[in-house]
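Postdoc handover notes: sequence design on the structure in folder B. Input tokens:
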């Protein structure tokens, strides 16, 4: 008599839906706050999912920090880098893991 019990961690299993479509990024808007002591920009990513899935936004930059989360964030330009052009990437993923991303340059305006 042989009894084998096999288990797996469900959180590590990737379930792909062949009918799932990746999110679509329509546009990204950037509005600089020129009255701030530290250069900042309010950034909004306008995206949707063709299947109506919930979206998760992930922001990355070559320098600087982000405050907030989701489609609206405030980008704080690093003091060392306010005279150079940085690259910002927003990655939008749906509940099934399908992703879309957009990278754009950003530079603090001269005051």
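Designed sequence:
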């Amino acid at each position: 008599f042989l009894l084998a019990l096999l288990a797996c961690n469900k959180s590590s299993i990737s379930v792909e839906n062949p009918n799932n479509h990746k999110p679509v990024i329509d546009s990204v808007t950037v509005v600089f706050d020129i009255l701030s002591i530290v250069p900042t920009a309010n950034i909004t990513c306008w995206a949707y999912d063709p299947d109506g899935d919930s979206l998760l936004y992930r922001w990355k930059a070559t320098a600087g920090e982000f405050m907030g989360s989701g489609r609206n964030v405030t980008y704080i330009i690093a003091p060392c880098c306010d005279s150079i052009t940085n690259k910002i990437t927003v990655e939008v993923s749906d509940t099934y893991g399908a992703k879309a991303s957009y990278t754009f340059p950003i530079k603090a305006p001269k005051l």
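Context for whoever picks this up: Confidence is low (pLDDT under 50) at residues 1-14. Don't rerun without checking with the PI first.
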